[in-house]
Amino acid sequence: MNILLIAPSKLVSGEEFGDLPRLVETGYLMEVLSLEMLGAMVPDHNVMLVDLMLEPDLEGIMQSFAPDIAGVTCQGTSLIYNTLDTIKRVKRYDPGIVTLVGGVPVTFQPEAFNKDFIDIIVRGEGEITFREIVDVIEKGGDYKKITGIAYREEGHLVFNPDRPPVANLDELPSPDRNLSLRYFDKYIHPFMKVPRATLYTSRGCPNNCVFCNVNVFFGKKLRCHSPERVINEFDGLDRLGVEAIDFMDDNFLQDVERAEKIVSMARERKMHKKNVIIFARANSIIKGKHVLAVWKEMADDLYVAVGFEGIKNEWLKILKKGTTREMNDRAIDILHELEIPVHGSFIIDPDAEKEDFKELADYIVDRNFTYAGFAPLMPLPGTVLRGKELPYITSDWRFFDGRHVVVPTKLPSDEFYEQWYWLEGVARKQRFKAVKEKQQRVEQDDRATMKKILSLD
Ligand code: SF4
Fold first, then answer.
1. Nearest ligand 1 atom to alpha carbon 206
2. Ramachandran angles phi, psi of 89, nearest 5°
3. How far is the CA of 95 from the centre of ligand 1 (A)?
């Protein structure tokens, strides 16, 4: 069968939603791992992956590829409408194509996808579910037996029981990156400006942050790929011609022993990469300092993106982050000691006043951040926060993108936005400063090398 896997465009219509450069800057243009994973599950079929950000002519693609099945991923709450539009286009083109949709927003908001142009909704981790659906479509069978889906029967949505998360991640094949080969030179890292690949080495998170749905979607138990599998996949990414490798795990250092094993194996194999990016929490940086020290040796540049979320213990407590300002300070010190640029993100308290924005700005300047990102509190479906009866100033999903305020703020909203953009301006200056310093270091090294060569002559 011909299976078309589609990543909808992330461009949202309407000037207030921003344009392509802004989306690209926020890292939106990247490999769609979830679809590559699905593609790897059905190697016995003819699979095509299309990223509508880069190839928007969906109808032209359907004309030449003639899909029997179209699997569409919803990559964010703010993209719910884009996803629906995309599936509608598929059904309008050919009502005979079986349409499937999956992703985190689909799992937590299945009713938003209860549309007559959607045949099957995939909830939770989708790989095995997808394989079973394809088998039923190909060979016949009963959707009733497939856990983790909702499907249409006589115009109604029938919900099957949930599917438990995959117990042994190594049983899943590696993502089929051949499906995205034609895109990699366009998957540019937002601030490194080089092509990047991504990989996941674990799923699940035992922490309780109230603004996050990762620990609900993937569960609280940390499940990991074996270090051997991680290293093989990591090493194989060079063939894609990428210059940056982004570990997408929410906290690569969650299990420090495992991270240590992965790094030791990479060292044994004498692996060296240009740019490596990992995500981590402040407390795990403190625990895993020695692991970062080894990573640092194996990459020209190692970036550790940290969700600091706040600089006040009171706020961190409300978010149930499980960290403190003191831990954040210590983690920053460690990063500086190891000469790793400080990259952090913060959630802005809706009650923030002018002095709070100023305090945050001073913090990132005083502690010499290279990159700082800010987003207002955003109660996404599936989070603990969403379960609370918060007042919302909008129910339009397009605004749940981290670039808009969705709950009332203490400052009038235009002042809040003004302060927020001012803060981003401060962060931008920090970034330019870091880029300039790096350039100067490279020039100094180049001059030293030149001197050495000349003196040898
Ligand atoms: S924000 Fe990070 S640490 Fe907190 S629950 Fe989500 S994934 Fe876990």
1. 8
2. -65, -40
3. 40
What is the third-level CATH fold of 171-448? pyruvate-formate lyase- activating enzyme (3.80.30)
Q: How many CA atoms lie within 13 A of 142 on its CB side?
A: 3
Choosing from 249, 250, 346 the residue with most ligand 1 atoms within 8 A of its CB, the one to mutate for a pocket test is: 250
Closest CA to 375 of 345, 409, 343: 345
Per-residue pLDDT tens over the stretch 394-434: 888 888 988 899 999 999 999 999 999 999 999 999 999 98
Residue-by-residue DSSP string for 267-288 = HHTT--EEEEEEEE-HHHHHHT
- The alpha carbon of 186 and the centre of ligand 1 are apart by a number of angstroms equal to 29
Task: Give the CATH H-level superfamily of domain 2-159.
Answer: Response regulator (3.40.50.2300)
Closest to 186 in 3D by CA, of 175, 176, 196, 198: 196
Phi, psi of 354 (to 5 degrees): -50, -45
Residue ranges of the chain assigned to CATH 3.40.50.2300 = 2-159
- Extract the tokens encoding 150: 């909702």
Ligand 1 atom with minimal separation from the 309 CA: 1
Average of per-residue pLDDT values in the chain: 93
- Whole-number Å distance, alpha carbon 271 to ligand 1 midpoint, is 29
Is it the case that residue 239 has pLDDT exceeding 50? Answer: yes
Nearest ligand 1 atom to alpha carbon 211: 1
Q: Are 105 and 381 in contact (CB under 8 A)?
A: yes
Q: Where in the chain is the domain with CATH 3.80.30.20?
A: 171-448
For residues 363-402, b (16+ Cβ closer than 10 Å) or e, as one string?
A: bbeebebbbbbbbbbbbbbbbbbbeeeeeeeeeebbbbbb
